[in-house]
Design a protein that fits this description.
alpha+beta, Helix Hairpins, Heat Shock Protein 90, 5-stranded mixed β-sheet, 50% helix
């Protein structure tokens, strides 16, 4: 089953661009807030670390005062091992894990405590701070020269709980990771919210894109969001102006065609009488009428009369006019039989075998329009099929789709020209015979009115033309 072309997919880019902009405008501030939050957390960790540096430095002189003498420690050879009477504050610090201390001489030799904390002694009396990784832990270390009862020593304290050294891991686990999860969830939530918020706009787009190019009826304003109602009102005003202009043009064509029908009918009747008289008396010598000129005049009046009738049919088949008229059930088999009778004389005059292959079928439509469409197809087939050719009228249903079809073994239409012959007043160059280029255009318009499609294709074997009008059931 074939249908008329649907809406262009490229139009979705407008809405997707708006959705993308809304997502960016909503998610970027959230990302900035997460970064600012991480920065404040880092500043907070730095402030805590500075406070701990001060507390660590305050313990150094207390550690030096805890040295009350020297002596020999069991298991060591030297006799100058410091004897400690640890102050309560220092004892409380050392009991908290992780923490270390060392008492070293000015040459970097460990006298008491952790040997890895001894190294090059500070060059000045000022305390020195640095960070160092040992045994998988980042330590905050302070060293300072101190005068004690056993002489000048270097007191070193190490704190493994410095928050500044743990800020990267802490911020990632406690700030960045939750914020990233929040951003992902926010993206889905905002995407869903934007989709729901844009649904009226999407419905409006669908309503506009699903319209036929000839449908200029106003859009329902109450179904549109308040933000786009001015746009809908502008579109409706534009539709009204274009519709008025098209209606004026249609009325002009209909009125002109209708006014031409009566004088043309009288002229054609008179010319037909002259032609019959000229043909009947030719060669008898009793009446001398210019037979060739009369026949040319007869053909011209026939074409002019046919043009007026086709212009009137084209005007009456306008989609905007027919939308207001309800469709009815049309018996396609009976319609084909009537059209066969109408064109039988013209086919017999050219010795064309005009046949009928009709299966019972019913379609929803306008009876007089479908008669006009099928009559145009049969008229074209008889007109352009050579003498002693064959034209077949068919109707029925394929896969539940009702159809009208006309086959002929004439010259056919090239694939490159099949779309253009549906245009009004277009005729393929080099076409033999008389015509106005409106028959197929009218049939295509009638197909659109019925929400069907006109298909032109070659018959198997490459010769002739098959014109199929598919209709709604």
């Amino acid at each position: 089953m074939r249908f008329a072309p649907g809406r262009p997919r490229g139009a979705a880019g407008v809405t997707s661009g708006l959705r993308r902009r809304l997502l960016i405008l909503l998610l970027v501030p959230l990302l900035l807030l997460a970064i600012i939050n991480a920065w404040f957390d880092y500043r907070s960790a730095g402030d805590v670390a500075e406070q701990q540096d001060k507390e660590l430095l305050a313990l150094v002189p207390l550690m030096a005062d805890s040295i009350i003498g020297s002596g020999k420690e069991q298991g060591k050879a030297q006799d100058d091992v410091p004897v400690l009477l640890v102050a309560p504050a220092v004892e409380e610090f050392l009991l908290d894990e992780p923490s270390e201390f060392a008492v070293c001489d000015v040459d970097g030799k460990a006298l008491r405590g952790a040997e890895w904390l001894c190294g090059l002694a500070p060059s000045s009396p000022d305390a020195e701070f640095h960070s160092e990784v040992h045994a998988g832990t980042t330590w905050r270390i302070v060293r300072q020269r101190q005068q004690t009862v056993i002489g000048e020593v270097v007191v070193t304290l190490a704190d493994g709980s410095d928050p500044r050294q743990q800020w990267a891991r802490l911020i990632f686990l406690k700030v960045l990771l939750p914020n990233l999860v929040l951003l992902v969830l926010a993206a889905f939530a905002v995407g869903w919210a934007v989709e729901r918020a844009l649904k009226p706009l999407l419905d409006l787009r669908e309503a506009v894109e699903s319209r036929s190019p000839r449908d200029l009826s106003p859009i329902e304003e109450s179904a549109s969001p308040e933000e786009v109602r001015p746009l809908v009102q502008s579109l409706n005003r534009l539709f009204e102006l274009v519709n008025a202009q098209a209606e004026s043009q249609r009325r002009f064509i209909a009125d002109a065609a209708h006014q031409l029908r009566t004088p043309l009918a009288g002229l054609q009747a008179q010319v037909e009488a002259w032609a019959q008289a000229a043909n009947a008396t030719q060669g008898s010598g009793t009446v001398r009428l210019p037979t060739g000129e009369v026949n040319k005049l007869r053909n011209a009046t026939r074409r002019t009369s046919q043009l007026a009738n086709q212009l009137l049919a084209l005007s009456r088949a306008d989609a905007r006019v027919m939308q207001a008229q309800p469709m009815q059930s049309v018996d396609l088999k009976s319609l084909c039989e009537d059209i066969l009778q109408q064109h039988l004389d013209a086919a017999t005059a050219k010795h064309i075998d005009l046949g009928l292959d009709a299966q019972p079928a019913v379609a929803q439509g306008h009876d007089w329009l479908l008669r006009e469409a099928l009559s145009n197809l049969v008229d074209n087939a008889v007109k352009y099929t050579p003498a002693h050719g064959t034209v077949t009228i068919r109707c029925g249903a394929r896969a539940g789709v009702p159809f009208l079809e006309v086959d002929d073994d004439g010259p056919g239409i090239a694939a490159a020209e099949r779309q253009r012959v549906l245009e009004r007043f277009y005729r393929v160059q080099g076409t033999q015979g008389e015509g106005n280029g409106l028959g197929l255009a009218i049939t295509d318009e009638i197909a659109r009115v019925h929400r069907g499609v006109l298909i032109l294709e070659s018959i198997a074997g490459g010769s002739g033309l098959r014109a199929t009008l598919e209709l709604p059931g």
